[in-house]
């Protein structure tokens, strides 16, 4: 490892000279004055350099914090829609059930394969995003949206009763039927919604399976509807 003296060769030499001068008596005042001027200049240089290093390390810390935030965001969000990814929403559902009752809506886009087949996969992607942006308007502040599969999403409603969760699902359903998405102005993109509810400390699996069963029942009954298990 580099020693302190190696790092600051010039400064070490000046320090040594000045130590020796300080121990030497009877020299001309000019000699002490010159040494002091030299020492002051180096002291100033070191202060400037320290300030530059502090700023650089502040910048590096800021960059690192931003990188950490971005990595944390990417680890928990779906890259296409920016809603929570599967593992993040499962985590949130589990936490919500640990702290209170919760409602869960499982939403599956209707006949999405036909949209892909007709307009192509990239257009299908844009439809998924358009639909999510639309339903975000109807999800309350407490709630959160997660993507659990290709065209399957959950809306977690912490502290919501069953009746309140059904109202939110009904609102989402109405919003999708109110008008077509900008991307597909000539056809409605609808979804089937299954609603379930769990009391505090109930299991994630039961809540999710109940919503899944309800969603399939909504599909079976003709799609574009809400079913509550
Ligand atoms: N564009 C796009 N398509 C996806 C994505 N993930 C899944 N899909 C497609 O979604 C379609 C789902 O089709 P199905 O499971 O048959 O269901 P569906 O056509 O929506 O019919 P129902 O659910 O029965 O109403 C498949 O064609 C998948 O390829 C995605 O990220 N982007």
TrEMBL record:
Q: Which SMART domains match?
A: GGDEF
Q: Name one GO molecular function term.
A: diguanylate cyclase activity
Q: Which InterPro entries match?
A: Diguanylate_Cyclase, GGDEF_dom, Nucleotide_cyclase, Rev_trsase/Diguanyl_cyclase
What's the superkingdom here?
A: Bacteria
Tell me the Gene3D superfamilies matching this sequence.
3.30.70.270
Record-annotated GGDEF domain positions:
100-229
What is the reaction catalyzed? 2 GTP = 3',3'-c-di-GMP + 2 diphosphate
Q: What PROSITE patterns does the database record attribute to this sequence?
A: GGDEF
Q: In which pathway does it act?
A: Purine metabolism; 3',5'-cyclic di-GMP biosynthesis
EC numbers listed for it are 2.7.7.65
Report the protein name in the record. diguanylate cyclase
